Structures are given as structure tokens and as C-alpha cells.
Amino acid sequence: MPTPPSAPGSPEPDPADPPASDVTRGPVSSRVWALRGVRAAVSIPALILTAAFVGYAGLARESGLTLGETLAMAGLVWALPSIVVLTGAISAGMGLLPAAVAVALASVRLMPMTMALMPIIRVEGKTRKWQLLIASHFVAVTAWVFAMRNLEDYPREARLPFFLGFGGSLTGFVFCMTGVAYLLVERMPVLLAGALFMLTPVYFVCSLWGAARAAADKVAMIAGLALGPLFHLLLPGLDLLWTGLVGGTLAYGATRAWRRFS
Amino acid sequence: MTGIGDTWWWPYVMILVAGWLATDIWRWLGVFASGRMREDSEVMVFVRCVATALVAGVIAKLILFPTGALDNAPIALRIGAAACGFAAFFASRQKVVVGVAVGEVVLVGGWLLLGIG
């Protein structure tokens, strides 16, 4: 079984509804569960994510993206690391294929994340594949961490609507705030804009470490931090691909050898 | 403006193919593979390593080679702010909100002390 990845010290990040009382009150409709998901989305992690996207809106504007392009990325891609990689690729004039490979490499982690979540929100023999495909679009660090920590406390029938309500409202709110921030960032004082740009890397470095499950993930993160700037100077253009492949292979090889010998 | 194509729609093609498709394909594969493939298999461990290193590379580049307003802060201040944020994240038993807040306080404080912009 997958385990919730981050913050071993905070077992209850958000006080959502106590589900036990609903069991005694009889069945609750899907719509009500979805609305409870919306309410649970009003949370500290959602605020941090919103702030990170506000910071991203500034980066997008500096990179020369239009409002439409920025919003299309936020809504369609919905994974901040992938969005930042794609922004870099577009502003560097990268071709379609190398950009797609870089973004795909940055997004691979969504597959194991989705794989871990699906057995939790699925009702065997009842939930349709297309419903899961829609729900899977909301898989990104913030919603996933919340779901892995909290969903198992809810009755099985409630989990999919609850997750859709949570993910849908989180995405919708962040989407709107990204647009507002894009329009306002130009009139911002330099200090405020600089502080916003700083949000994304600090948020990433903390949540990436928090989402790391095995030692291999942590070694890979350290390798990537060191190799990213190096390859940026040595091999500009395809530096992220090299960072991922070399750093990831080194981390995997080293931790595997270490597992063998210990 | 941006990218190779000077047409208005080229960035949208990039976003659809290199953004939406390149990202959601993994989520869809995750839906189809769930229950079939062990997510703690060796292949998955390796894949997660590559993905983590790549995203970490993005983080380092955002701090060392920023675009936009953050460029005004000296590199030592940017690294110091990120390092303090990460240290605070650890000290607070891995609370992301504490890490982000401390990183921001160090950056803004240093910025004001140095009297930039």
C-alpha cells in the first residue's frame, strides 16, 4: 500500500467533515460529497499553491507569454513543475519535440501518483473508466497529498465526488487568480514581484522533499539541484533532459548499490 | 514574440502537445496501469528518480538564473533565502508553509537591508 508521503509530523492538515457521523445518518448524495470537497479545498495548502501560481503568472509575463497562453497552461497542464518547464521551453524557442520530451520527463511522476490514488477513489464494478480519467487530471502535488492523507477516512462511495469537488474548485480558483495576477503584476513594485518569483522555487524545494518516499528520491533531488545549473552552463537548450537522465541514473545506481551492500 | 513560429497559434500548439498531452498522458496511463503494475517496482523507482532530478534542476535554475524581477537580488541572497526556507521547513517538521514564509522573509529582509531598487 502506498503511504502518504510528506509531513510525518502533521497527521491532520485540514479539519474536514467528520465522516463517521454521516454513516449513522444514512446515505449522503454525491452532490453533497462534492460540495464538501469544495469546502475542504479552502485550506492552507491551497493558499500556498495559489501564491505559487501568482508567482508563476509573473514569470509567464516576463517570459513573453500572453494572458491566454498563461491560462491555457494553468488549466490544461495543471502541474506547476511541468508548466515552468514548458514556459522555459517556449521562451527559449525550443522545438515541439524536445519541449514535449522535457515536459513529459518532468511529468512522469504523475503516473505513479495516479496509480497510487486510483484504488482509493474507485468503487469496484461501479466506477467507470472515464470518470477516473476526468478525476486524474486533478492529480498534482497539492490535491494528491490531501487525497492520500484524508480520503480513506470517507465512505468509498463518497471519495470520487469529494475528490472531484476538491480538485475542481482548487483548479478553478487557482486558474482565476493566475489570470488576475497576470493582469496586476506589471504594476507591482519590483520588491513584491521579486518576492513572488521566489515563491515557486521555495515551494517546490519543500514539497518535492515532502513528496519523496524513498532515499533514492532524495538523492535524485540533491543531484538535480547540483547538476541543473552545471548543465545549464555546459549544454544549454537540452540541459533539463540531461539533468534528469544523468542525475536520476546516478541517484538510482547509487541507492541501488547501497541497498545491495547493506 | 516567442518560440519558433511567429503565428499567434503556434504557442497554443506547443501548449496542447508539449503541455497538455505530455502531462495528461501520464495521468491516463496511471489510471489504466493501476492495479496492474506495482508502483514500488524497480522501473518505477528509476522513473521517479529521473523525474525528481529534472524538477530539482528546474528549481536550481529558477534560483541561480532567474528571469524577471528576482534578477535584482544578488545571487547570495537568493541562495540564502532558499536555504533558510528549506532549513525552516525541516525545523518545523516539514511544514511547507513555514519554509515558504521564512524563505520570503529572508529575501524581502535582505532586499530592504541592501536597499535594492
Describe the fold and architecture.
Helix content of chain A is about 75%, strand content about 0%. Chain A is mainly alpha-helical and about 260 residues long. Chain A has helices at about 20-25, 30-40, 45-60, 65-75, 80-90, 95-105, 110-120, 130-135, 140-150, 155-185, 190-210, 215-235, 240-260. Chain A has two domains: about 25-200, no CATH class; about 210-260. Chain B has helices spanning about 10-35, 40-65, 75-90, 95-115. The longest helix of chain B is centred in the N-terminal third of the chain and has 24 residues, at about 10-35. Chain B has a domain at about 40-115.
Throw out a few tags for this protein.
heterodimer, A: 262 residues, mainly alpha, 13 helices, globular, B: 117 residues, 4 helices
Total E-strand runs of chain A: 0
Spell out the helices and strands of chain B N to C: HHHH
SS content category of chain A: mainly alpha
Classify the beta-strand content of chain B into a percent band.
under 5%
Give the overall pLDDT of chain A as a whole number: 84
Chain pair forming the biggest interface: A-B, 118 and 81 residues
Main sheet overview of chain B: none
Helix content of chain A: over 70%
The percent range for helix content of chain B is over 70%
Alpha carbon gap, first and last residue of chain A? 24 Å
Per DSSP, the total helix count of chain B is 4
> Structural class of the helices, strands and pairings of chain B?
mainly alpha
How many strands of chain B? Answer: 0
Please tell me how large the radius of gyration of chain A is: 20 Å
In whole angstroms, how far apart are the ends of chain B? 28 Å
